Amino acid sequence: MMNYxxxxxxxxxxxxxxxxxxxxxxTVVRGPRTVLNGLGFTVPRGRIxxxxxxxxxxxxxxxxxxxxxxxxxxxxxDVLGRPAGHPALRTRIGYVTQAPSVFDDLTVRQNxxxxxxILAPGRAEAAHRREDVTRVVAEVDLTAHAxxxxxxxxxxxxxxxxxxxxxxxxxxxxxxxxxxxxxxxxLRRDLWTLFHSLAADRGTTLLVSSHVMDEAERCHRLxxxxxxxxxxxxxxxxxxxxxxxxxxxxxxxxxxxxxGTAARTKETTTS
Length: 271
Ligand SMILES: Nc1ncnc2c1ncn2[C@@H]1O[C@H](COP(=O)(O)OP(=O)(O)OP(=O)(O)O)[C@@H](O)[C@H]1O
Known about the structure:
GO terms for molecular function: ATP binding. The protein has 7 helices and 10 strands. It has a 6-stranded mixed β-sheet with strand order 6-7-8-3-9-10, sandwiched between helices. A 4-stranded antiparallel β-sheet has the order 2-1-4-5, covered by helices on one side. By secondary structure, the protein is an alpha/beta fold. Helix 2 (108-119) crosses helix 3 (126-139), helix 3 (126-139) crosses helix 4 and helix 6 packs across helix 7. It folds into 2 domains: 1-10 and 17-92 and 174-271, P-loop containing nucleotide triphosphate hydrolases (Rossmann fold); 102-170, no CATH class. Adenosine-5'-triphosphate binds next to strand 2 and helix 1.
């Protein structure tokens, strides 16, 4: 089980603005594999942090740990000032998995009404729920499809319904696992515009995973992962400057080579 060393809300690290996420020595073992290997990092509030790395490097596992749904995590993982998985975090985090989680036999609006009723139950909340549903449908650009059955939507539209569910209740932290997969360039651009307005206007913290390196350039900060470890935790500009490369993709490849050389040198000196 998670070995929590949590501080009360608002005192994490003593910074003026405590981070949204703070991990120390976070480790996850799945079957015979150590999928996350002693990770230490922070995710700043009100910013977009990109979680990038090749397929299988552990991005989804890390997101599940932050959302509180990953078993067998050890180390410290604080989210919005609470230990990950704390019941008080349920309404404060919006989490979108890679597989769209929508009911095919309900319309877009009915799907959202259902999840809105779980988040804010009771007749007294009915008007607020209606407003919230209308808002999130517009935010993901599905107003024209609000009365279509989810089962009749395209893959990209269905994943936007999942995103709309996560936006209900305006959560403080959005954890989005590859939200732009399968979207055309126009929709991808529109989603990134939405992400930036959520961060700038609402102060929402976004953690967005992708294995498409050009999306890295759209993030305020980056966590670059490889084989269960954090290879870099920096801004896109700082990464490019530090490595002397023009793009984040080239910087990432440079860091991969550097890590490989360091590992080989260590092997030679210890054998
Ligand atoms: N139940 C399991 N038992 C053992 N290993 C697992 C299990 N589930 C996942 N893994 C391994 O854990 C590693 C990390 O998986 P994860 O889904 O977190 O990667 P990812 O970076 O999100 O990949 P992708 O971008 O393809 O979704 C992978 O190498 C995967 O094979």
